[in-house]
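Re: Re: token formats

Sure, here are both.
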Amino acid sequence: MKNTTAIGSTAFTGDHLDLILNADPPIKHLVFTLDADEAGKKGTEKFVKLLEEKLGGHPGLKVELRLMPDGSDDPDRFIRTSAR
């Protein structure tokens, strides 16, 4: 991936999503991955609600929600241990 950033789901706000949606040049593909634990699941639900509220007016934006396998703790550790 060319441009990436990481932020905890409990800290991800509508303002962060506004920055993404109003970037210049426009962002064309957004991938959102959270932990498989309860907090990650709640964060994903929060993110989906934000998308539903704010996504109108952004045709062509591809949004991917990647779900971690049950029992995995976080995306970084999963990649580091599974990419071998």
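Second one below.
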Amino acid sequence: MTGLKDRLQSDLTAAMKSRDELRSATLRMALTAVRTEEVAGKTARTLEDSEVVTVLGREAKKRREAAEAFDQGGRPDRAERERQEGEVLAEYLPAQLGDDELTALVAAAIAETGAAGPQAMGQVMKVVTPQTTGMAEGGRVAAEVRRQLTAG
């Protein structure tokens, strides 16, 4: 078992002992997603911490999208629950990049690749994506790359 997965498991045990229903349910869901990912494919395997972060990031994104959907559907109680679950998951994810940090990373990648124009977006994304994994959503990164390539 990896360090992050161990931490999730021990935090789940602590949450169950303290009867924290929200945290218990959220951590159970997260561990289930990790185990599902471990057995996906031809052979079962143990995920590395970086892969566990990717799974947790995906789950946190699902919570954000569900909260928006519940808000639009007139279910603020369910939307709030989804946001709270997202906050629990965020504790296990790396800190998100601020707008200034993301802008600087993208600018550096454009300078490094010598990219110019929107057709070079893939080239820049190849450089930026590994640096932002788990710290910024892909759509947000792509939007910033597109903005800088079309502005410059």
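The mean pLDDT is 88. The two ends are 46 Å apart (CA to CA).
- S.
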